[in-house]
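Intended use. Records like the one below are meant for learning the mapping from a protein sequence to its folded structure. Do not use them to infer anything beyond what is encoded.
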Amino acid sequence: MTEATVEMIDAVFDISGENVPSAYAAPLWHALTRHVSILAAHESAGLLPLRTSSTPNGLVLPKRAKLVVRIPTELGAEVEALAGKALAVEGTVLQLGAIKLRPIQAYPTLHAHLVIGDADEIAFMQSVSAQLAELKIIGKLICGMRNQLSTPERTIHGYSLVVHDMKPDASLRLQYAGLGADRRYGCGIFVPYKAIADLD
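Structure written out for the chain above:
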């Protein structure tokens, strides 16, 4: 692990609520930082995308939904205080339940739903390769679909990305560091990926 890489951990909350708006990432993040303001000071902290079902009225949460926030390990105690809080998110209320602090495990194949980058796929992949080299990460790359995420300020564009054939140290380093900007909205956060055929 390089000295500049901050060790991270996933804070996993039980969460209940009927639905969330399609563009939930920004208002959900701001709701979290209203309760734990120190989160906003850490660029490496961010939301993992919620698992939802799409309907004409927005996104519906499953019965056993989880909210996962990737945080520096040192913030574990502060974030534990979110357990039991109600979050107001664009006219809906999400109730946080119990929390579990989950150490990040090394997997040879990781996936990010959206890594911010150039619209040109070749330029995007060149940028990703340069960032991985800077982090001293060796792995094979598969570029997925062009994706976007809306916030009140702008629309964020990028690609989904799979990095595979990594050694354990490199896998941890990538999950700790992430790639690109806007980690707070879930961009550039990598999670274990089991089937590299499905890249959406």
